[in-house]
Amino acid sequence: MYVQKARLTLLTLLLICFTSALAYSASPPKNTLKGDFFHTFSNSLPAEFAHAKKENKFGLMLFFSTSHCPFCKRMKTTVFNQADVQKYFQSQFRLLEIDIESPQPLVTKNGKEKPRLDFSKTHRVRLTPTIVFLNTEGEPVYRHVGVIADPQEFIWLGEYVVSGQTRKQNFATFKMNKRRDSTL
């Protein structure tokens, strides 16, 4: 009797895990673009801040990732390749991917060379993906931990940062209001 209940419980848990995994495995939307979402990273944050200022952008969006992160890969294939996402984010930010396991160092905003893993720790990156938004002065504005699988929600994240709402409300409330407004 106990063995049957344990098997049933295990089977139920496996079924729940499998169906939740399927929620993230839908085919990508058709409105995709070829090309890279990210700008070519010069490995120098001061140079990137100068580019952002020259291009009149809000600042930098740092996408902390690893080569083996399935959620990072998912965002690249279902969110970053969307035309609307690319248009919005490339108009507002310098977009930089930082592989935290890369041996190549980068130059920090104060001009010092630092390993990428150490740099990621200064931004409290413990999981990938982590997205950090910096203004053109190099000050952190917002940090988002985890995957965003919906392209519209990702655009809302950018709007949340650019609009200054990070000082007024949390992203969950902002997103809820955007969702409500879009259904009216």
Quick description:
The protein has 184 residues and is of the alpha+beta class.
Alpha-carbon Rg, integer: 19 Å
> Could you say which structural class the secondary elements and strand pairing correspond to?
alpha+beta
* Total count of strands: 6
State which percent range the strand residues make up: 15-25%
Overall pLDDT confidence:
86
What is the CATH topology of the domain at 33-148?
Glutaredoxin
Task: Quote the distance from N terminus to C terminus.
Answer: 53 Å
| Biggest pleated sheet | 4 strands, mixed
Quickly name the level 1 CATH class of the domain at 33-148.
Answer: Alpha Beta
Helix content: 40-55%
What's the CATH superfamily of the domain at 33-148, by name?
Glutaredoxin
CATH architecture heading of the domain at 33-148: 3-Layer(aba) Sandwich
Strand order of the largest sheet: 2-1-5-6
Unreliable stretches: 6-29
The helix tally amounts to: 7
Q: What's the shape?
A: globular
N-to-C SSE string, H for helix and E for strand:
HHEHHEEEHEEHH
